[in-house]
User: Which sequence fits this backbone?
């Protein structure tokens, strides 16, 4: 079946004109192709240099903290060297933080360089960028309104990691979620509470953070003694207990200073409350407080200092309906 004459003539005309058009525009095509190739190669080079810089940043984050030989505070103000010791949790925290920050920075650099290179290539081809940018702006605005909570989560997660607010292994208070951090991502933070429940918290919903694991902690103990107790004796017992705790081979390394007696904290209805406190290594304050409470109780008992406790009287009712306090073994029970 023969093709129509008009169609055949169009092909013939195009075949005759194409070599002439290519000859007239050869320089333009070669120059344009060279420019596009240069833009693509330049984009790859810039991306490689940027990724190399990001790798250096990640390696610096992964580098263990250098310790002072005598345990003195470091110049950066982060506390004694005993708090900077490299352990498994610290390494895991640094590695996760470094990996996430590196991945985010690498993705951002790739997207930005890719968009810039594409815009430059389209400009070389002769495609007007104005309408494309306007359309992209409208689409981006619509997506931003629809996913603003997701964007807030990612931005908050990035700031949490950059500022090092908390990391894997830290004990934190995020409001309702209180426990140990098991994972920190760009969108979610996972916290394991005391009962074993795993909380998944969106980073954009975290308004405040209490971190019990950074730098140092403090063990605080309030001791209630009777109103007729000699406070000088109480102070002496508490100070002696603190010295004993500081010299203890097991508890001493957990303390960053010798325990001190702060004095009378309050005058309650049943007791005079005296407070003592001591700085400890992070996450060790609860164990130190329990041991300090046990030793204080034993030493106060030896010194004859009474630790008062609330009392109440239970009245026993007889079978005949009379109320009263029976005598002898059936007397009122106080506790």
Assistant:
């Amino acid at each position: 079946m023969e093709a129509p004459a008009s169609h055949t003539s169009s092909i013939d005309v195009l075949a005759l004109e194409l070599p002439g058009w290519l000859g007239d525009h050869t320089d333009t095509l070669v120059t344009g192709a060279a420019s596009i190739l240069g833009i693509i190669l330049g984009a790859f080079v810039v991306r490689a240099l940027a990724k190399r810089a990001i790798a250096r940043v990640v390696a610096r984050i992964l580098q263990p903290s250098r310790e002072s030989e005598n345990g003195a505070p470091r110049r950066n103000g982060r506390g004694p060297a005993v708090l900077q010791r490299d352990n498994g949790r610290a390494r895991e925290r640094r590695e996760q933080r470094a990996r996430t920050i590196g991945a985010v920075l690498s993705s951002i650099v790739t997207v930005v360089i890719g968009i810039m290179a594409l815009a430059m290539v389209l400009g070389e081809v002769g495609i007007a960028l104005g309408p494309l940018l306007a359309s992209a702006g409208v689409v981006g605005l619509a997506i931003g309104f629809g996913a603003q909570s997701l964007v807030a989560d990612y931005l908050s997660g990035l700031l949490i990691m950059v500022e090092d607010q908390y990391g894997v292994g830290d004990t934190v208070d995020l409001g309702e979620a209180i426990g140990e951090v098991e994972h920190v991502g760009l969108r979610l933070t996972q916290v394991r509470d005391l009962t074993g429940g795993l909380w998944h918290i969106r980073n954009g919903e975290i308004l405040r953070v209490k971190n019990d694991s950074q730098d140092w902690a403090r063990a605080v103990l309030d001791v209630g003694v009777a109103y007729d107790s000699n406070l000088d004796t109480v102070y002496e017992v508490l100070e002696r207990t603190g010295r004993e705790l500081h010299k203890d081979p097991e508890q001493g390394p957990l303390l960053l200073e010798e325990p001190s007696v702060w004095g009378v904290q309050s005058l309650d209805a049943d007791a005079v409350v005296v407070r003592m406190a001591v700085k400890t290594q992070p996450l060790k304050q609860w164990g130190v407080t329990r041991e300090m409470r046990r030793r204080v109780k034993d030493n106060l008992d030896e010194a004859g200092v009474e630790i008062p406790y609330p009392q109440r009287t239970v009245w026993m009712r007889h079978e005949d309906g009379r109320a009263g306090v029976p005598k002898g073994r059936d007397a009122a029970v106080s506790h």
